[in-house]
Design a protein that fits this description.
This protein is of the alpha/beta class. Helices cover 28% and strands 19% of the residues. It has twelve helices and 15 strands. The longest helix is centred in the middle third of the chain and has 18 residues.
């Protein structure tokens, strides 16, 4: 009988430093160190925590928000850059996986970006929120599906979405179809009011049940002083309170520790990875419970760009690209290649590099038809990482929180 595979995770509820991007990063690094001392192998932070979520955009009209928007530009990090280098170095030295939300500055635009650093300090994933929500569209640009990926780490397969992306079932299904084991969700916190916290809880518990994975959810927090600095209007201040639900959920939809709904702190829990199989044995929504011949997802995960160059082969597809394109141009209603495509398939096969002769089989018949997506680069094997401490922590006393009162939970 194999021993249990246990992963200890921490979800951090924390307040940013409004007037100092360096100050916020310092708080991130301190929280990572504190979580690592508790044995955490995964640490998750709130949505766009660095330098801070743009709370001002929720309560100020656009005509009055320009100054605050420019201030956010000034403090927003580039990726990579000094801020991400500091987090990567700490993740590497402590051997922990870190999921961090940032306002990423890319020249003249800001993006809601999620970063996953593996236990070797590598930036395993950088993804941008597909569609900013409501007031956020005045602040951030749109992302694309190139980041809708699950990444392999030393503690398991990890995926991430931000806030109301969880109300996009196709985005969630894209990660489910890649068999995510640990889903990291991020919300701003201190927003809308108590109803937002209730909605967050429903959302993350549902995803855990539907995906058959663990969900580590982190929300932010604002002090009264910070709320007053955003707006002096007492009525508008009500919109910047509540909405916090930092929690860790099992694949069975259960809290593994008492959720944190106010104040700063962290929720820590042990994840018994065998619960994934226990759940999926009954209901695997991308496996035995799926009907891909009836319902399936097609995704365009090619990165978007404002300019394409012939010299970079962006519009001169390789044989592999031509084969991929045939999915658009040469499929009948039943998803099969038409007779007119056969000659071109044979021509492309002859042009494929040695060893890729059967490439078109993968393109026309994906390993799992519930998710049809172009090939993407394969991340380096974790075996190449020499700095991680190795192995998984043994099953301990159970889950606990580091804020008073002590909160523990059992995964039994």
């Amino acid at each position: 009988m194999t021993s249990k595979r246990i992963v200890r995770a921490a979800a951090v509820q924390i307040a940013p430093v409004f007037d100092s991007a360096t100050g916020t990063i310092d708080k991130v690094c301190q929280a990572i160190s504190d979580a690592a001392k508790e044995g955490a192998q995964l640490v998750v932070f709130p949505e766009t925590f660095v330098p801070y979520y743009p709370y001002f955009s929720f309560v100020l009209p656009p005509v009055a928000a320009g100054r605050e928007h420019l201030k956010l530009y000034e403090h927003a990090p580039t990726v990579p850059g000094p801020a991400t280098d500091a987090v990567a170095a700490l993740a590497r030295s402590l051997g922990v996986v870190v999921v961090l939300g940032v306002n990423e500055r890319d020249h003249g635009s800001l993006y809601n970006t999620q970063l996953i650093f593996d236990e070797c300090g590598n930036l395993a994933l950088k993804r941008r929120k597909i569609t900013p929500t409501y007031h956020e569209r005045m602040i951030w640009g749109q992302g694309d599906a190139s980041g809708l990926k699950v990444v392999e780490t030393g503690i398991g397969r990890i995926g991430a979405l931000a806030c109301w992306e969880h109300y996009n079932p196709l985005a969630r299904y894209a990660l489910m179809a890649q068999h995510e084991e640990i889903h990291c969700s991020q919300f701003p916190g201190s927003l809308v009011g108590p109803i937002f916290a209730e909605q967050i809880e429903v959302t993350i518990r549902h995803h855990a049940l539907e995906s058959g994975c663990f969900v580590i959810n982190a929300t932010g927090w604002l002090s009264d002083e910070q709320i007053e600095s955003v707006t002096p209007d007492a009525d508008l201040q009500k919109a910047l309170r509540g909405g916090c639900c930092t929690a860790i959920i099992s694949p069975e939809g259960q809290h593994l520790a008492e959720p944190l709904r106010s104040g700063e702190g962290m929720v820590i829990a042990d994840l018994d990875m065998s619960l994934i199989t226990k759940r999926k044995r009954m209901m695997d929504s991308v496996g035995h419970y799926a009907r891909p011949e009836l319902l399936s997802l097609r995704i365009n995960d090619r990165p978007t760009a404002p300019m394409f160059s012939d010299e970079l082969n962006a519009i001169k597809p390789s044989p592999e690209g031509r084969l991929a394109g045939m999915q658009d141009d040469c499929m009948d209603a039943g998803g099969r290649a038409t007779q007119g495509a056969v000659a071109e398939v044979e021509q492309c096969r002859e042009q494929l590099p040695r060893g890729n002769e059967n490439k078109e089989e993968t393109l026309f018949n994906p390993p799992h038809p519930s998710l049809i997506m172009p090939d993407s680069p394969v991340r380096h094997p974790m075996g190449e990482c020499k700095s991680a401490p190795g192995g998984f922590v043994p099953q301990g006393e159970g889950a606990k929180s580091t804020f008073p009162p002590k909160q523990r939970a059992s995964h039994e």
